[in-house]
Give the backbone structure.
Amino acid sequence: MTLTREDAVSLDAGDPLAAFRHRFVRPSEDVIAYLDGNSLGRPLQSIGKVWASFAADQWAGRLIRGWSEGWMELPQVVGDELAAAALGAAAGQTVIADSTTVNFYKAVRAAINLRPGRRKIVIDRDNFPTNRYVVESLAKDLGLEIVWLTGSEDTGITVADVEGVLDDQVAVVTMSHIAYRSGYLADAEAITSAAHRAGALVVWDLCHSVGSCEIELDRWQVDFAVGCTYKFVGAGPGAPAFAYVNTAHLDRLDQPIWGWLGRQDSFEMEQGYVPAAGIRSMISGTPSVLGILAVREGAAVIAEAGIGAIRGKAQALGEMTIALADDWLAPLGFTLGSPRDSARRGGHVSLVRSDARELCAELTQAGVIPDFRTPDAIRIGLSPLPTSFTEVWDGLDLMRELAR
Amino acid sequence: MTLTREDAVSLDAGDPLAAFRHRFVRPSEDVIAYLDGNSLGRPLQSIGKVWASFAADQWAGRLIRGWSEGWMELPQVVGDELAAAALGAAAGQTVIADSTTVNFYKAVRAAINLRPGRRKIVIDRDNFPTNRYVVESLAKDLGLEIVWLTGSEDTGITVADVEGVLDDQVAVVTMSHIAYRSGYLADAEAITSAAHRAGALVVWDLCHSVGSCEIELDRWQVDFAVGCTYKFVGAGPGAPAFAYVNTAHLDRLDQPIWGWLGRQDSFEMEQGYVPAAGIRSMISGTPSVLGILAVREGAAVIAEAGIGAIRGKAQALGEMTIALADDWLAPLGFTLGSPRDSARRGGHVSLVRSDARELCAELTQAGVIPDFRTPDAIRIGLSPLPTSFTEVWDGLDLMRELAR
């Protein structure tokens, strides 16, 4: 029995997170359904105000004094706020700075530095491109071997896949917590444990999971993690990324881009790099204050809603999407490109058909905005806080119209 | 004969750039003189508006579509705008992305990659800390030798100093165009030529010169240059930096942080890194759109004012500062920590006395905001567009009061 639009309206009426939708700026009139919050989240209304008032009051008013009145600590302060809201990490292990790519480069290299003598990095072929490219550049530079894993769309990379390649030469295992294409949610805890049993360290990419599902970095004993803040955290296009380093490694942390803001006593401007104590030394240059302030807004709303409730709604939106896809789209030749088991599926659902590229363009033109991923997937992003069940229903309804 | 306040008022009346002052947000009432635009420039009024309207219209309205409607090209488009306004560089060689530190890391490493077999990097002890630390990290990683130069406060590093250490083992010579402490303006053209004669490449740090004095990267045949945009370009705290790579090197450009946005056909998300054509491959991750839009505002106002006129006013402000320092501050024990020759002096003047740290704190408390630089310098930043002669006069007047 197909879910009706009335069913979707009922789901919205019973949605404990419904009120959060009104915190976001309304999209323009031409948007029927925004189903790409997993690429670029919608803006909270508060963010434009924060930016304008920062320019007028903080920047113009405090000028250089702002740096000694709090801006300098923002990467760590807001890092801790995000860690508490969404990463399951105690304070003092997270900074907001740089891009995901740069943080990933630093984290993987720092992990390699902690495992001298080991010559292999394990990564999967379906990992996000930037991660694969960074690993390739580091492997070339350091003469390391890359061990490539390939998972299936249903199961992604399993613990057994990883265990199958672990040996005493593996320095680092790195994966995406949620696969960018299939939405497969990896068993981060079990893979981390398996890596540790072989003496390797892990670097998790949390881009698609932060703000979308539960993350317990400390409990899982993750070594390093990075991720972006412009998807489910909603900090805006090109917002700074985060980097997490487990307390256990902070004493010996050696990341490769030594910069003044990661040095002990930066403003003494002394000769010779000496890393600052703790997580601070993951920073290199000056991070974007504007960007960090937007991350703060996103972290606050996640904390207020609660990541458990967010995950619950993401799963419900995913179940509805798959039910409608089964009823409406499977008969039109679509297959599911994501795990059917919601416990192993993140905050988006991929629907696969060979003309996905063209169809995605038509949908966007018509006001339903999903995302295309090569070669043949339409990703339906299900961002719990700004998205209603009705919006998803309407989007899929138009999709079946256009896909006929 | 000491310049009177009336003289300063007259200089303002005759200042062809006077109207630009009103483009900036007024500082709060407690600020008598802001003399630190060389650390953090004041905000143009337009920037807060650009940010708020970007959040409300572009981000909220266009959502993910914005990336294919122009955001993706912004790093290069605004790079070209800044290059035309302030760098003396033709289009296609400049991007806005990352921090100065990260860009410097990429540029120095890319330069080293273009000089395989050579084992030395030349840098000066008075270079900005982050540059020194990055060179140390690269030298450690690659087993290179650092050749440290030391200049005097008056003359900085001269061509002869550089020539004295050049040999066929030097891969890269890197310096700041304007020294952060003394304000010494290096002879970038002559040093670049000297390096080239020895077969080495140059990487110039333009943090303190961009938007403050004439730069002719193409004419000087500079290989690589980087710099920040939060000083004289005025793009805000933590605004993204720029990176310039001479066309001559673009075909073989190999920077170390391979990321998806620097790859050919990023969104095909293919296996294996293949650098994008041209300057694009200097990019790694997603740059801050907000930050780039602020750089655009700064570049536009520099283009409108003209870098020649800006440099002229910077020199006039510097001459006035030194004349007043000679009259008022030298008798109180201050010495000039900057070149007296305005042709060799950038956009700030350092005044040296052993209690500079305490005095700078007192000045800031009283509403005159210069910058302290260890161990004993007060930097008087002279940002031509927002700063009046009267403001500088008032600032130095209070300085002589407090320094008695």
Q: What stands out?
A: Chain A has two domains: 5-45+306-403, 70-304.
